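Is it possible to get an amino acid sequence alongside its tokenized fold?
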Amino acid sequence: MTEKAIYDVIVVGASNAGAMAAAAAREKGAKVLVIDKSSDTTYLFRNTVASIGSKAQKAAGVNIDKQELVNYIMEFNQDNSDQRLLNVWAENSAEAVDWLDDNVLRPHGAYMKATADAYYETPMNRAFPSGNEVTNAEGTMWAMGWGKWFLEKLADMGCELRWHTALEHLTVENGAVTGVKVRKVETDEVYEIKATKGVILCTGGYGANLALMEKWNLSGLKTTVYEDGPRDDGSGIVAGLEVGAAKDELPASIVFNRGSVPVGTNAKNFYKIGLSTVGKPGYLWLGSYPFLRVNLRGERFYNESSPYQFAMNAALRQPGYLQAMIWNEESMTDEKLAQVHTLGCSRFEWPGIFDGPLARKEVQSNLETGLVQKADTIEELAEKLQLPVAILKATVERYNELCHAGKDEDFGKEAYRMIAIDQGPYYGAFVGGRMLATLDGLRVNTKMEVEREDGSVIPGLYAAGNCAGGFFFGSYPDHVPGLTASHADTLGRLAGKFAAEN
């Protein structure tokens, strides 16, 4: 069955990239349909959005050199990205952030607030003050749930939003994408919808699809213990491949080092999809703090002061693909938590979201479920963690010696992040990765048109957000806070403009 209604542009996915694409296409005069398999996407809209030169950044005196940042990302990605895409992002990121600020946030009293600093000392931790925070009217916290305003804005603009509508396939005529075949979730009815100008895929990654993880990101599957994006089934990427699209050859993902698991877990066999979220067992925000880490033999094995995902990269060469984090009561004081100056959402107090009471409450919650262990001595803690007692004791003694000396001669961690753990009570937890999203996707050009292997364009097909590739590689550069959200917002907005002009 083919639906009689015909649209200019169909956007698949009603989150960050999809909403921006729909708004931009509608502003160009297109008749727009947005479909989504869920019933609501309000809480999928991200609160930290990167940019270069937004109005909020200018007001805060933040000045980032475009080419310096682009070159940094290319270096971080080992040149496994399309620099033309990064250039397009850099040139248009401020416009996307300003549009959100002016059209979605300020009408409701909220606004964008730029983070003015990004402290670092070592090349591995090089950082940029790229974040714009979606701030509540009081200026004290993120404006949580602001996605509701964006969805209302789309409706007010005249975009049609159709929920519980899942993408099955793309429809093709004479080599061009002409619409979508969708399934009504409640009834499993399958029907086609036509698009005269284009279809924009904004369907996210594939982290919730075990078969695709095994095929495209096996190392991520081994080191990640929780998957926090249960919508990410890879449907848009698969649909694109079915009609001849090319895909990134190598995996990319954004993973947080905040997944606490039971003692004795082997991460290779532990991958929970969409079961643990912030505030529930298994979430340990403190895992993003650079405290002492040991492998399951009780040995320190890397510099804990590094981007989030480097922890999982290091654990890939360790038994059980995991690490145990060791800390003490003093480590959780406000003074010590602020001292290490983390970035992004783990940053201590506003403009971050993490603070001392939350840290201590979360540890207590994990103690109650047995995911965090507590002891009066290191020997007792080692036994509770099933780690070799003598080795862990020697490791902690050596770490404390380096902390007091003010120089990490073993792994080079910065002195200001060396916090001694030489008095109890002591804490320990097995920590692995939390998969926010996979980031390798369909190959696109600078107009967000999806390409075939030979570089030719598939007419009528566009992609943005996490199902679009070419931008990221391997580990996510979390010292550029808000980059994934900005990648989705900025390139999604461009996709909408180009599709409407087709």
The longest helix spans residues 83-105. DSSP finds 14 helices and 18 strands in the chain.
